[in-house]
Amino acid sequence: MVFLRCEAVRWVDDEPQPGLVEVRFTDAHHQRWAFIDKWPVFSSEDLHPDSGYPLEAEILCDILASSNSSDTADTVKISVAPWGLESLDGRIEFEVRADQVTTR
Question: How far apart (Å, rounded) are the C-alpha atoms in residues 93 and 63?
Answer without folding.
Answer: 10
